[in-house]
Design a protein that fits this description.
346 residues, alpha+beta, Helix Hairpins, SH3 type barrels, five-stranded antiparallel β-sheet, two-stranded antiparallel sheet, 5 helices, flat, J_dom_sf, membrane, transmembrane, J domain-containing protein
Length: 346
């Protein structure tokens, strides 16, 4: 059994090259054969043959066949080391540690907030009790027009929710006496005895004495008499009327004759286009885009399904690290297709 040819040397790559480098080398070395088919070159191309390139690419592009080829002909080639995986128990221990930190932090935050909330609640309860006691006394005075002052007794105010939880609120009564003082007196006597019972205050009463006013007769204003005035009638003015002017009517003239259009010349016979000779075809499993420029950034002129025949124009350009070629379709459209998606017509 003879030794097979060095496929790495045929493609011009190192034995340690990856799949992308092998694919690029195959595309670059097979391009002269495709261009040669288009231009119908008769001279011999130096270097590897097209059959050798196809065989080398078929062996090296398949991972299983390349691994077997390397074991037989390149036993000293370093193999890639297996990827080290992290055990599952390490992930579990890390998750438990993070959960413990979150729980301890939440407990610490709660322990710092609870005393503050209690102090704020106590301040609110004390302020509410003070406001209720201050509003207990009220004195109502009679209006200035009333001859007798209005005497009102403020009702009793019960303060229960405003005091601390350990004390029982009692009834606070405030009575205003107009002759003695104009300011109410409020008293609040909290006690800790649970047997105290609130005492209801009597309802507020008021006595109003209003004098009867004596009606007076209103004065009558004198009525004025309006004297009529004389009006001067306007004088009439004679306005001269314009005289009519006779305008001659122009005589109608016949329009000039229109020019007669000449018949267009007969169309010249067009030369029939040459027959379509495909050089390549779409070889991918999915449809590809026909671009109006070399690169994926150009607009699409339509989708080309698998097996669409193309005729290469010989123009090519690199864009984004890939080779793009210009082709002509059977219907006359022209555009750019990636060289990776086309294969020569056999």
């Amino acid at each position: 059994m003879g030794r097979e040819p060095d496929y790495y040397a045929i493609l011009g790559v190192e034995p340690t090259a990856d799949a992308g480098a092998i694919d690029a080398a195959y595309r670059g070395r097979s391009l002269p054969f495709r261009v040669g088919q288009l231009r119908r070159r008769t001279d011999e191309t130096t270097g590897p043959t097209q059959e050798g390139l196809e065989q080398a690419y078929a062996i090296l592009s398949n991972p299983q066949s390349r691994l077997l080829y390397d074991k037989i002909y390149f036993p000293d080639k370093p193999q890639p080391a297996p990827r080290r995986r992290i055990p599952a128990w390490v992930w579990g221990l890390t998750a438990a540690w993070i959960a413990a930190i979150v729980v301890v932090g939440c407990i610490g935050i709660r322990s710092r907030i609870t005393p503050d909330e209690s102090a704020i609640g106590q301040i609110v309860r004390t302020a509410t009790a003070g406001m209720a006691i201050g509003n207990a006394g009220a004195v109502a005075t009679a209006p200035p027009s009333s001859p007798t002052p209005l005497i009102a007794t403020a009702p009793a105010v019960t303060v229960a929710a405003a005091l601390p939880p350990t004390a029982t609120a009692t009834t606070v009564m405030s009575t205003a006496t107009p002759p003695a003082s104009t300011a109410p007196t409020a008293m609040a006597t909290p006690t800790n005895r649970p047997t105290d019972v609130p005492i209801a205050a009597p309802a507020a009463t008021s006595t109003i004495t209003v004098g009867t006013p004596t009606p007076t007769q209103a004065a009558t204003a004198p009525t004025a008499t309006v004297q009529p005035t004389a009006t001067i009638a306007p004088t009439s003015t004679v306005v001269p009327q314009p005289t009519a002017t006779v305008v001659p009517i122009p005589t109608a003239t016949a329009p000039p004759p229109l020019p007669t259009p000449e018949p267009p010349p007969p169309p010249a016979p067009t030369e029939a286009p040459p027959p379509f000779q495909p050089t390549d075809r779409i070889g991918t499993a999915l449809s590809v885009n026909l671009r109006n420029g070399p690169g994926a950034g150009y607009g699409s002129l339509g989708l080309l399904p698998t097996g669409t025949q193309l005729r290469a124009t010989g123009e090519s350009a690199y864009s984004g690290g890939q080779l793009w070629r210009r082709f002509v379709l059977r219907d006359g459209r022209q555009g750019w297709v990636r060289d990776l998606d086309v294969f020569p017509v056999r």
